[in-house]
Design brief:
single chain, mainly alpha, globular
Amino acid sequence: MNFLLVFIGGGIGCLIRYVIGLVFLRISTSLPLATFISNLAACVIFALTTWFISSKYLLSENNSVFGINLKLLILTGFCGGLSTFSTFGYETFLLFKQGMFFVAFLNIVFTTSVCLVVFYLFNK
């Protein structure tokens, strides 16, 4: 059952990542916006899910079957399929290779900072 939850969540996350990529193909820009949006969405969903699972008002135990299944389906599967760290690294490398050092630096700083702020805001 655990493998199935990760498989289903990952498949849905990958499909949504693909759709986000298609949407942003129409926007001609040197910035890797599709990757940023995918990673940001995954961070928001991850942060909300961890908050939901850890909330004592919503679940009596963090180790409940529901909480474990939710972690496998959403955190491991869906967010794993949706987030794109390897793509983030590759696109940043391409920016450096193209001599767009400032944009590459901004991509690293902005993506990392925004994602960390999301986790902070939802898990204070």
